[in-house]
Amino acid sequence: MSFRLACVLYLLLGLATGISSAEENHDPLDSVMWLEMHKRLLNSEPVVFDDRVDVFAPAVAEDSLNLPVWVDATALGKVQRLMIFAELNPIPKVLEMEPVKAAPRIGVRIKLQQATPVRAAAQTEDGVWHVGGILVDAAGGGCTAPSLGSGSSDWADRLGEVSARLWSRQDYTRLRAHIIHPMDTGLVAGIPAFYIEQLELLDIGGDLISRISLYEPVGENPLLTLDLPKLNQLTLEGRDNNGNPVAALISRESDGEGGIK
Questions:
Q1: Around 2, how many Cα atoms within 13 Å sit in the side-chain half-sphere?
Q2: What does the pLDDT look like over 131-189, one tens digit per residue?
Q3: Is 139 within 8 Å of 61 (Cβ atoms)?
């Protein structure tokens, strides 16, 4: 083979590889904001679009203040971080989870400002983000509407109140926790941002089970569903952006009442 022919073949192979790579990394949702999200939220780190990251949500949001979203990245195996974001929200990042001992899946209700891709990104131990998502249509306005609960006369007395339940599911324990908090985005005139920032789940020995960072687009009075190792009791601890604590002792014997701060 001549040197010139070898160079031509090398060039053609390189072009073919580049085309294949571009096709594999093409955004399946064709979002105008994807490249910005990749840069801003995922720090331009390696990304692949991956069907193993399941994002379940209604195709149409009946209530833009409370869209139920379920994310499951267990098919990837070990996951270091799990992130949920709504690209066309004025505040796109919704939630970030460090699974630690928990399964890399979570249910949450979120606010939507308009029709948008809702995505989940799971980072594996090799540093690669695996991204799945779904398009959700919405009438909008969820991020710029005032919270409903803050208009109640007793909301301040119940701030941080936790009700929760643990129950067995096959080889794991499911937790569902409901926390009273307005989760104000700061995008309503005269109402500053006021939201739960972080939650930690600890076993009875004080070891970390999972850590969750919440952001303004999480729905009012957050309702979270997580799958944990087999256990009968855990502690939920956290705080909001004003330093108010969230704390509860949750046990299977409580039968639905997780504990009150």
A1: 3
A2: 999 999 999 899 999 888 766 767 788 999 999 999 998 899 999 999 999 999 999 99
A3: yes
Token pair for 119: 């995505």
Enumerate the H helices of the chain as residue ranges: 3-24, 34-40, 155-158
Global pTM reads 0.87
Listed residue (195, 228, 200, 231) closest to 214, CA to CA: 195
Alpha-helix residue ranges (DSSP H) falling in 115-251: 155-158
At 169, is the secondary structure helix, strand, or coil? strand
Provide φ and ψ at 24, rounded to 5°: -65, -30
Q: Considering only CA atoms, which of 21, 70, 47 is closest in space to residue 121?
A: 47
8 Å CB contact between 95 and 218 = yes
Kindly compute the dihedral angle of the four CA atoms of residues 19, 20, 24, 25, in this order, to the nearest 10 degrees.
-30
* Average pLDDT of the chain, as a whole number: 88
Secondary structure of residue 151 in the 3-state scheme:
helix
**42-69 pLDDT per residue, tens:** 999 999 999 999 999 999 999 999 999 9
